[in-house]
């Protein structure tokens, strides 16, 4: 007998794992061969739907440690004491490509953190960019359709990518970011993470603040040029996964320092930019970075499918002291993620080990559904209120209430004095060195010159002109030169 016996899924010993059962030595298979049937049937069911965006990703565990006092701004328990550590799981990702793509591509990177706090899991689902392409969730499916594979050609099409952007002047800031030097990170370790949206913090006294999160990499920023990326993607399509996995296996644990920008809630209405517009940053001179703590990754998952593919982050998972802002994009995301998880993983995805709370337990009256494993029974009632000491509400809101006014309807987000679609894109362009500008212009022209329709090209050029006349002129010249080639 071998030391460890191979069994069927119901635990019965397997006699032969090399030869299936047949009627006679040369005859057809026997339907009674349970081991063969089970093995083939399970194999057919190994795949689940991939994420509709951010399909390719890598994950790791670690901890977050508070280094600075932020209790004037939030009563979140996990941020409440200097030195306090909270376990985290972080999943990095690329956005547009399907599971079979490559890591070294020009694309934003996802930076999704799950803090397993004693008051429940807090998910901060951000990117490596402080802004985004659009500011209304209604546009998200169209935007993503234009960036992913075309339904007819089955591949990404420059025409679709730039046609969407021709109709989205608010994307000019993020396009300038993406086509610039930081557009292709060398690895997940060498990039920053941002919450991107504005969130709300509430302190013990009930005062509200608006905050933006910045995770600054302690490994230094490293990026690839378009040429280096093409070579890397060809040599090792999983270059980011290889780098992260191997660094942590070697004990070279990557870390990030968390800073926040904090705006007292009363300043939001008169700030020169709409503070809830995801296509804008808050200049640091208006709201300086304040250090909060350190995030360290020190453990690779044992099983990529169980822990990375099945990881489920929802921007709607808040803990007391933290809440959403009225940013329309964020509000749309509060719905989209848990809905995606129910489709992709099922209603009980929160019971999977990577998604379940670790520092506390979920205790509520949600029951049953496919694959339920929390078999509450006996004296655990499934209704509330009850007379049997079941879990009960606290009566304390997680975050402060926000005043609202106006009429219902399909509104554009209110524009503040300095709000337009181009000013901050121009500011970013003017910050760049001449070399950086040259690479930015070449990257944009490389994509835009592939578009055959003049009207789509012209609309995009108008956006760069509006951001900065020199920026527009240089992109126009570079596109013309390539199209005439
Ligand atoms: C209204 C706009 C958006 C919608 C509707 C949306 C929707 C989604 C959906 C459906 C997924 C797949 C979730 C899953 O299957 O597990 C996803 C993943 C993701 N999204 Fe968004 N998204 C939006 C905007 C954004 C923005 C602005 C950011 C960053 C600031 C972002 C960051 C991410 C990240 C990091 C993931 C991957 C999470 C993971 O690692 O599992 N998304 N998004």
From TrEMBL:
EC number: 1.11.1.6
Annotated PROSITE patterns: CATALASE_1 (PS00437), CATALASE_2 (PS00438), CATALASE_3 (PS51402)
Pfam families: Catalase, Catalase-rel
Reactions listed under catalytic activity: 2 H2O2 = O2 + 2 H2O
Annotated Catalase core domain residues: 7-392
Keywords: Heme, Hydrogen peroxide, Iron, Metal-binding, Oxidoreductase, Peroxidase
Top-level taxon of the source organism: Bacteria
SMART domains on file: Catalase
Family: Belongs to the catalase family.
Protein name: Catalase
Species: Streptomyces beihaiensis
């Amino acid at each position: 007998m071998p030391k460890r016996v191979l069994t069927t899924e119901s635990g019965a010993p397997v006699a032969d794992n090399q030869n299936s059962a047949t009627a006679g030595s040369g005859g057809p298979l026997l339907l009674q061969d349970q081991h063969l049937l089970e093995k083939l049937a399970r194999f057919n069911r190994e795949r689940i739907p991939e994420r509709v965006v951010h399909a390719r990703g890598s994950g790791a565990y670690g901890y977050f440690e508070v280094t600075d006092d932020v209790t004037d701004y939030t009563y979140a328990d996990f941020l409440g004491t200097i030195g306090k550590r909270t376990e985290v799981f972080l999943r990095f990702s690329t956005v547009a490509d399907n599971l079979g793509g490559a890591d070294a591509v020009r694309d934003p990177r996802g930076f999704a953190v799950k803090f397993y706090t004693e008051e429940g899991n807090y998910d901060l689902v951000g990117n490596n960019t402080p802004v985004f392409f659009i500011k209304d969730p209604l546009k998200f499916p169209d935007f993503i359709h234009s960036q992913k594979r075309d339904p007819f050609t089955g591949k990404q099409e420059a025409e679709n990518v730039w046609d969407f952007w021709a109709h989205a002047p608010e994307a000019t800031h993020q396009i300038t970011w993406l086509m610039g030097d930081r557009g292709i990170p060398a690895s997940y370790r060498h990039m920053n993470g941002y919450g991107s949206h504005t969130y709300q913090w509430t302190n013990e006294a009930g005062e509200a603040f608006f905050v933006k999160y910045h995770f600054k990499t302690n490994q230094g920023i490293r990026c690839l040029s378009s040429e280096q990326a093409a070579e890397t993607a060809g040599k090792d399509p999983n270059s980011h996964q290889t780098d992260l996995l191997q660094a942590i296996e070697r004990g070279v644990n990557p870390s990030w320092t968390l800073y926040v920008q904090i705006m007292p809630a009363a300043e939001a209405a008169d700030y020169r930019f709409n503070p809830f517009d995801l296509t804008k940053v808050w200049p640091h001179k208006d709201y300086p970075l304040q250090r909060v703590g350190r995030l360290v990754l020190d453990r690779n998952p044992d099983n990529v499918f169980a822990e990375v593919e099945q990881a489920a982050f929802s921007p709607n998972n808040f803990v007391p002291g933290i809440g959403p802002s009225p940013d329309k994009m964020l509000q749309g995301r509060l719905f989209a993620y848990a809905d995606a998880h129910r489709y992709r993983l099922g209603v009980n995805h929160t019971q999977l080990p990577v998604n379940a709370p670790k520092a506390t337990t979920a205790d509520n009256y949600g029951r049953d559904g496919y694959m339920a494993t929390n078999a509450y029974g006996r004296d655990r009632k499934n209704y509330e209120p009850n007379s049997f000491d079941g879990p009960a509400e606290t009566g304390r809101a997680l975050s402060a209430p926000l005043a609202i006014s106006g009429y219902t309807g399909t509104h554009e987000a209110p524009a503040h004095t300095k709000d337009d679609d181009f000013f901050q894109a121009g500011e970013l362009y003017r910050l760049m060195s001449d070399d950086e500008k040259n690479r930015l212009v070449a990257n944009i022209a490389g994509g835009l010159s592939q578009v055959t329709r003049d009207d789509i090209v012209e609309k995009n050029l108008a956006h760069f002109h509006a951001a900065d006349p020199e920026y527009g002129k240089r992109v126009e010249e570079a596109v013309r030169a390539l199209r005439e080639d």
